[in-house]
């Protein structure tokens, strides 16, 4: 059901609900969605509202309508929540995708001003930094650069080809709140080479700031996503 008194339009609530179902694997690429009549009954809304929701999803490339057959999840859809607080690996698993990682760099380097400010260090003080290429079903999808606090210096000796969150969990590191920002950026030479896109192609940049439960900063992550291979929903 949807919330009739919400400030979010009813059709937007349906888009979010169906997008969640695609992201968590309830509906997989190629699966048929419920009929208009079934969605009307499921959400308790009018047929016009359902049609508005389906049209928005179709315009976004999330679903495809076949005349006389119904509405189907697009075959190339890879859905992720823009406010996702789970790991990249976990999100891929929910979407029925295979995540893999190539560690490109791991070592100590001087942070940029943004990272130094977050970590509470001087930009003349080296911090542990990693750069990883994340792949979905073998395709380069995200280039990630992380700068870590001194509390996570042990990561220098860990294999980060696994999920970073899984490594931290094994070491007993608890996650507190996080903040995430999103903006459009344009592929640098490095990003274009690793993500196999044209120079200056439009990419999505997420910056994650992760804290311990105490509020102490743990790491800051710069994640550049190839928009040709992923769709995010809000």
- CATH superfamily assignment of the largest domain? Chorismate lyase-like
Largest sheet: 6 strands, antiparallel
- Assess the beta-strand content as a share of residues: 25-35%
The averaged pLDDT comes out at: 88
User: Unreliable runs, pLDDT <50, ≥5 residues?
Assistant: none
Shape: elongated
Number of beta strands: 10
Proper CATH architecture of the largest domain: 3-Layer(aba) Sandwich
CATH topology group of the largest domain:
Chorismate lyase
Distance between the termini: 19 Å
Which features characterize this protein?
two-stranded antiparallel ribbon, single chain, Arc Repressor Mutant, subunit A, 2 domains, six-stranded antiparallel beta sheet, Chorismate lyase, 234 residues
Overall description:
The protein has 2 domains: 10-73, Winged helix-like DNA-binding domain superfamily/Winged helix DNA-binding domain (Arc Repressor Mutant, subunit A); 79-233, 3-Layer(aba) Sandwich (Chorismate lyase). The model has no long low-confidence stretch (mean pLDDT 88). Strand 5 (127-136) and strand 6 (139-148) form a beta hairpin. The strands form 3 sheets. The chain has a 6-stranded antiparallel beta sheet with strand order 4-5-6-9-8-7. Helix 1 (10-23) packs across helix 3 and helix 2 crosses helix 3 (47-59). The protein is α+β, with helices and mostly antiparallel strands and 234 residues long. 27% of the residues lie in helices and 32% in strands. The chain is built from 7 helices and 10 strands. It is elongated and about 65 Å long.
């Amino acid at each position: 059901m949807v919330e009739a008194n919400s400030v979010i339009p009813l059709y937007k609530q349906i888009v979010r609900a169906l997008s969640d179902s695609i992201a968590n694997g309830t509906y997989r690429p190629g699966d048929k969605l419920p009929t208009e009549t079934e969605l009307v009954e499921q959400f308790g809304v009018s047929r016009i509202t359902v049609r508005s929701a389906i049209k928005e999803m179709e315009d976004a490339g999330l679903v495809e309508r076949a005349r006389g057959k119904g509405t189907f999840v697009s075959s190339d859809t890879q859905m992720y929540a823009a406010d996702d607080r789970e790991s990249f690996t976990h999100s891929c698993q929910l979407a029925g995708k295979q995540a893999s990682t190539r560690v490109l760099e791991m070592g100590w380097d001087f942070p940029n001003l943004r990272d130094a400010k977050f970590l509470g260090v001087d930009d003349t003080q080296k911090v542990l930094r990693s750069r990883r290429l994340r792949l979905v079903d073998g395709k380069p999808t995200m280039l990630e650069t992380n700068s870590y606090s001194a509390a996570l210096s042990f990561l220098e000796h860990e294999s980060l080809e696994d999920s970073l969150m899984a490594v931290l969990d094994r070491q007993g590191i608890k996650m507190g709140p996080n903040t995430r920002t999103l903006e459009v950026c344009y592929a640098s030479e490095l990003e274009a080479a690793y993500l196999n896109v044209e120079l200056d192609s439009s990419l999505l940049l997420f910056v994650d700031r992760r804290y311990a439960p105490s509020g102490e900063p743990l790491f800051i992550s710069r994640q550049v996503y190839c928009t040709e291979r992923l769709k995010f929903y809000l």
